Amino acid sequence: MKTVLITGVSGLIGSKVYNLFYKNYNLYGLDMSNTYNFKNFIKCDLRQKDKLKSKLKNRKFDIVIHTAGLAHNFNNYSKEEIYQSNFNATKNLIELIDKETYLIFLSTIGVYGKSILDNEIILESTAVNPIDDYSKSKVLAENFIKLVMKNSLILRCSPIFSDEFLVDIKKRVLYNNLFYVTFGGNQLHNFCHISNFLNIIKYFLSTKPITKTFNVTDGNIYKSKEIPKLVKNTKSFRINLPLFLIKLISKLYLIFFFSKKKLILKIKFHKVLCNNLVYSSLDCNPNNKKINFE
Predict the structure, then answer these.
(1) Domains in the chain: ranges and CATH
(2) How confident is the model at residue 252 (pLDDT cuts 50, 70, 90)?
């Protein structure tokens, strides 16, 4: 039986992965707190390398699924905290595990950054061009993994959601706690339901290690006007203004910001006002159980 370590096991994704696989693997969970009372729990902060070294001493894992890191509410954290949690923590972990270990790393489509503005569909070959500290920290982690690990799978995830976790997709339609849909709500988006993400993890755990980078979606295309129903909100309203007028207002608003802040805001506006499509060479549509990759 293979031994698997899941970091960030008390988070949404880590806990779901643990609950799905604990019967099939010799499973360990690592986090700063054992929220769900998992067995084989390792309490540790990945940013504290000496303590992590002590906790992992004489332990050997066949697979590490690395879900730990800061992913939300970035305004509550400093730049240093973001890099410590997403890059330094990953670096510490990699330096302390066997380099033959199969590492599955959760990254983000945010690594494409500015390229989102220049491409109708984000491909796995699209240029990586991060602009915010979160995405930059993920790129640093990706690059270090590719440099050091012999077997690594990098998953650049579209916003992952479940029935109880809807933070990332609400951002496309939520403003001051009021849902809104613009221009008929026909902007197109790709997300990834947690069940589809788990199917992908299940598939890769059952196959030989593969060293590759994939975008991850659930294979469905969602319209902005469908999101309020998706998040079970029936109080949405439409802003029936021409698209060109809203874009003009956005450009005028951006005049008051300096370059970096302006670019970040421009991408945020783009996610609301335009199509946000992501292509994945993994075919994970729920109607098609087979996963293909080129």
Answers:
(1) 3-163+190-217 (3.40.50.720)
(2) confident
